[in-house]
Amino acid sequence: MVEKNERPIYWKTRLDEVDDVMKSVKKGIARAVTKSAGGRDVYLVEYGEKQDFNRTANFSSAVGAGSSKYYADRTGKKPVIFIIGAEHGGELEGTAAILNLINMIETGKDFNGFSNPYFIECIKNCRLLMIPVANPDGRARMPVDTVCGMDFEQFRHWGQGRWKNGSLCDYPACKTVHPIKDCVSFLGTYYNDDGINIVHDNFFGIKANETQAILDIADSESPDFTINLHGGGSVINEVDHADYMPMYAKELVQELKMRIKTETENLGLPTLVNKIRDESFTPPRTFNIFSALHFISGTISILYESNQGLDLSDERPLDPTWETCLSYEDILRLHYVLFEQTIKFASENRMQY
Questions:
Q1: In CA terms, which of 79, 306, 318, 333 is 20 to 30 Å from 122?
Q2: β-sheet with 238-241: strand ranges across
Q3: Is-contact 210 192, C-beta < 8 A?
Q4: Closest residue by Cα to residue 340 from 227, 234, 247
Q5: Cα distance between residue 69 and residue 131, in whole Å
Q6: Mean per-residue pLDDT pooled into runs of 10, the chain (353 residues)
Q7: Positions of E strands within 60-166
């Protein structure tokens, strides 16, 4: 398959490019934390020293005792930020943003020559954890390095795959079977090689290696905020709270959303801010890895849906939020705003969650 648009040199998303950036890390630590279902490395990059939270209990037991401080006493500690890219392997924007951020930390500039000394100083005041590609199997299945300029049918083909009758699995029908591997003629990039969508894994049973590694990192590190980076087609960029978190956590995300919206609008770029959702309806909204991250570690879990720059000229989906196609540079800048504002917000909100 030929890409419609040649990607810029700073748009690095391939697994071999991830390997190269991991080898370049000198100011932090880059290490493989597990192997995917297909035997590929899942990398974690760490900046800032790991902190001792004086843990005496797991999160559940600590909350049962009346305070999360028995799990993580944050008093006098730096905030911990956990950023996860490509839980769906073909959603490449988060991977590009993380690799550029790593290069900025290591060299002072991202791969496009952009520098932000203030942002780098902010990072020094936190512990930053990043997984560039949580689902390398899905990424390996993607034959292109960008979806910018891709039409909607190709986008769905590579993302969710095709049923055995050749029809698109589409969204959200792709979630009606899990694991999906034996029901498709083409396994899309949502899944690892076992056909598991790690966003909807069995969090209370036997889990994929990739899922287990993500939850283990959260449990070990007790991050203040966890950002799950995803791609939402040509949506207006959206920051959203995980479902099933308590109201105080959702309200913190809502405050963070407004800060991000202000900063992005200063750049002339849109950000969608939805209201806090009511979860009293039936059936309840999805319980996914974003929610599970909160319940294992107390982290304030965030979903970021990035614009992906699709070509909507041929067949536009009937969705009012699909109304913009951003450039590579704008997509990258919006991720930087997300990262910077989250780090600043966490530093200002040091509390026992």
A1: 306
A2: 29-35, 41-47, 127-131, 80-84, 225-231, 300-306, 238-241
A3: yes
A4: 227
A5: 26
A6: 70 98 98 98 98 97 96 94 98 98 98 96 96 98 94 93 96 95 98 98 97 98 97 88 93 95 91 84 85 97 94 59 78 96 89 49
A7: 80-84, 127-131, 161-163
Is the preceding peptide bond at 179 cis, omega within 30 degrees of 0?
yes
- Burial profile 106-119: b = 16 or more Cβ within 10 angstroms, e = fewer: eeeebbbeeebeeb
d(CA 344, CA 87): 25
Q: What is the pTM of this model?
A: 0.95
CATH superfamily of 15-50+66-143+200-348: Zn peptidases (3.40.630.10)
Domain ranges of the chain: 15-50+66-143+200-348
Q: Token digits for 183? A: 């029901």
With DSSP H G I counted as helix, E B as strand and the rest as coil, what are the percentages for the chain, rounded to 5?
35, 15, 50
